[in-house]
Write a structure and sequence with these properties.
The chain is built from 22 helices and four strands. The protein is mainly alpha-helical. Strands 1-2-4-3 form a four-stranded mixed β-sheet.
């Protein structure tokens, strides 16, 4: 087919804003559906267990109902709404329901970014920025609460950007978006900081009392909105605990820096931004430049914030991008009549086709890397006894109604206890023996790389029941049923 025909045809299809947005959403949704990304995190399982508990008891837990070590201790479950949604998705469609929910959330977020970019930025730049944003999100695409609020985060960013363009605060009713946000994930604090930053910039720019009053009213409504949660004011300020007590989260994997011994998505994004800045006149305002620097710093110091950089970064860069790479297409207007319905039907057919393929060819799912297989080698009578576990497998134990000693809720456990648990996993006999005596531990359930497993292999009082490259199970011989006390070691598959 002649090139002169293909290029204009492609521009007509993709240059239209609704078409481009729909295509981005379809591509992103398909990638998330067909890659086993969302179920690879251990904390997904305790989130679902919490949602199931709330659906069964019709209330939000105020104390821990799951563990053996801190049972009954106060627990502020600030992600309760997202956990109910996750549990409902699992109840309706199992692992496929979780994957569909995750794919829909990421697709909606990317659709918001694509729609805003395509309004005023050239198509090739839209494609590049959307690709980089999605690549930054990929490491954190998990079936967890932070993904469910991703569409709210991108919509909020777009809303504030439009408010800055219009030199007026957003409509007051939009502050209500913080109500579900604050009940689903602690990142609503970021939304409040963004709104406060926009207010400060706008008031400093205009110096009018009326504008300052409108922004003050909007911020006041935002503050009221975040207090609408089961714990009230305490719940509104609870996410700041991470800033006030950073040592409490020491060793939590998602708060560690990315592994820069391998190429990371944020590196690619920053290098592309640097190249574009050196070759084109991409000039940010002082406030936007400060925000981009802060985002970059957070992304290289906490791997979780790569997701925030991908979701918020495009909106911060948009004013500079539309000056340097303005859109020459006027296809942003939505056409009426028959063509709209044809496009809607086409998008629905493609979406249903992708979903049908996903249902027809289900991906093999191994929860927490095979923990389910390991538990099958633990006799039911032994499962009812106290277990010593690492934090990554604690969530799955909760999901299977087995009280762990430790799980991924770092804020719930005293720091001294967490450090003692990690010392025991590292093979410190004194710490393990103390914990084993205190909780009458009868079996252990930990990743095979922990040195504790090698120590137990040398202890004649312990028997290895199962091991593979995901989980290792040891049992105290005195706790085993009589037929198993003669030796029940299962070799590595």
């Amino acid at each position: 087919m002649p090139q002169g025909f293909v290029k204009p045809a492609l521009s007509r299809v993709l240059g239209n804003r609704p078409n481009f947005t729909a295509l981005v959403m379809l591509c992103v949704g398909a990638v998330v559906l067909f890659l086993p990304l969302s179920l690879r995190d251990a904390d997904t399982w305790w989130h679902m267990a919490a949602g199931q508990w709330m659906m069964a008891h019709h209330t939000v837990p105020m104390t821990d109902p799951f563990t053996r070590s801190v049972a009954g201790h106060p627990w502020l479950d600030h992600e309760w709404l997202a956990e109910v949604v996750l549990a409902a998705a699992y109840a309706l469609a199992g692992y496929l329901g979780l994957t569909l929910l995750t794919a829909a959330a990421v697709a909606l977020a990317m659709g918001c970014i694509a729609r805003r970019l395509s309004q005023c930025v050239a198509l090739p730049v839209c494609v590049l920025v959307c690709s980089l944003a999605f690549v930054c999100m990929i490491p954190q695409i998990l079936a967890r609460p932070h993904i469910l609020v991703l569409p709210i985060l991108t919509w909020w960013s777009s809303l504030l950007l439009r408010a800055m363009d219009d030199n007026t605060p957003p409509p007051l009713w939009t502050a209500l978006a913080l109500v579900p946000w604050c009940n689903m994930h602690g990142s609503f604090v970021l939304g409040g900081i963004m709104a406060l930053g926009c207010a400060v910039v706008q008031v400093a720019r205009q110096h009018t009392l009326a504008n300052a009053g409108r922004w003050a009213m909007f911020l006041l409504l935002c503050l009221v909105a975040v207090c609408i949660n089961p714990s009230g004011v305490h719940g509104a300020f609870f996410p700041l605990d991470h800033l006030l007590h950073p040592m409490r989260y020491q060793g939590v994997r998602e708060w560690l820096p990315p592994d820069f011994s391998r190429l990371q998505p944020i590196e690619v994004a920053l290098l592309v931004l640097l190249y574009a800045s050196l070759t084109r006149s991409i000039v940010l305002s002082r406030s936007a430049a400060l925000a981009v620097v802060c985002l970059g710093y957070e992304a290289i110091t906490h791997q979780r914030h790569e997701l925030v950089a991908g979701a918020v970064g495009p909106f911060l860069l948009l004013p500079a991008l539309r000056r340097s790479f303005p859109s020459v297409s006027q296809g942003g207007a939505v056409q009426g009549g028959r063509s709209v319905w044809l496009r809607v039907c086409g998008v629905l057919v493609l979406a249903l086709g992708v979903l049908g393929l996903r249902v027809r060819f289900p991906l093999p799912v191994s929860p927490v890397g095979g923990a389910e297989v390991a538990l099958q080698h633990v006799p039911p009578a032994l499962q009812a006894q106290p277990v010593f576990n690492d934090d990554t497998l604690g969530g799955y134990l909760i999901f299977r109604h087995i009280p762990p000693l430790l799980d991924g809720r770092a804020e719930l456990f005293p720091q001294a206890f967490r450090l003692s648990m990690f010392d025991a996993l590292l093979g410190h006999d004194a710490d393990f023996n103390t914990i084993a005596r205190q909780y009458a531990v009868c079996w252990t359930f930990a990743a095979p790389a922990w040195p504790l497993n090698a120590h137990l292999a040398q202890d004649p009082a312990w028997e290895r029941l199962y091991t593979d490259h995901f989980a290792t199970v040891y049992a105290r011989k005195a706790c085993l049923p009589a037929p198993m006390q003669q030796g029940a070691d299962t070799p590595t598959p």
